[in-house]
Design a protein that fits this description.
Blueprint (H helix, E strand, L loop, with lengths): L5 H24 L5 E5 L3 E8 L13 H24 L5 H24 L2 E9 L2 E2 L5 H17 L5 H12 L7
Antiparallel strand pairs: 1-2, 2-3, 3-4
Helix pairs in contact: 1-3, 2-3, 3-4
């Protein structure tokens, strides 16, 4: 079954590679806290280091305890998502895609956290003086993945998959292995 899920793992690898490449590009292009306007009044490239989780919550401010906790939580979350990915049926392509995006993004941020003690963020969208929290490619993949997981939860399985599940519950005519 994992062989049939390989295309989804390619999505994870693509997200990971794009994330790591874009972070290294920013780190070499801009000094920390340097801002480069791309679309004035809407979008900047801004190099920041986030030692916390999404939106800077739980930032460590020089204390390694928070970083170690976030690394441990990241590894545990990856284990859970990997386990979930393994058991998701092949017909649920949306959920498999969602989980692949989350895995790629989570690994990308985890790599930064382990090597740098924080995550490189650089995508800075704003309107007037209101700035959305600066984020990166991995954060985007995780957010899209979570949105797809939510959408997937509202869908019912295809009729064939429902029939297969009902047959398994009632006992099928298939021989036991």
């Amino acid at each position: 079954m994992l062989k049939q899920k390989a295309p989804y793992l390619i999505i994870s690898v693509a997200v990971l590679l794009l994330d790591q490449w874009s972070k290294r590009w920013i780190e070499h292009r801009l000094a920390l806290f340097e801002v480069e306007p791309v679309i004035p009044g809407f979008f900047n490239l801004t190099h920041v280091q986030n030692t916390g989780v999404a939106f800077g919550m739980l930032a460590s401010h020089g204390d390694n305890t928070g970083t170690l906790l976030l690394i441990g939580l990241g590894i545990a979350a990856l284990g859970f998502v990997g386990f979930y990915f393994y058991w998701v049926p092949l017909w649920d392509r949306m959920l498999l895609t969602a989980l692949a995006l989350v895995v790629g993004g989570a690994i990308g941020n985890l790599i930064d956290r382990v090597h740098q003690g924080g995550v490189t963020d650089f995508l800075d969208f704003y309107v007037g003086t209101y700035h959305w929290h600066t984020f990166n490619v991995a954060d985007s993949a995780i957010s899209v993945g979570i949105a797809l997981m939510l959408l997937s939860s509202f869908r019912s399985p295809p009729e064939q998959a429902q029939d297969d599940e009902e047959g398994d519950e009632q006992g099928s005519d298939r021989p036991e292995p």
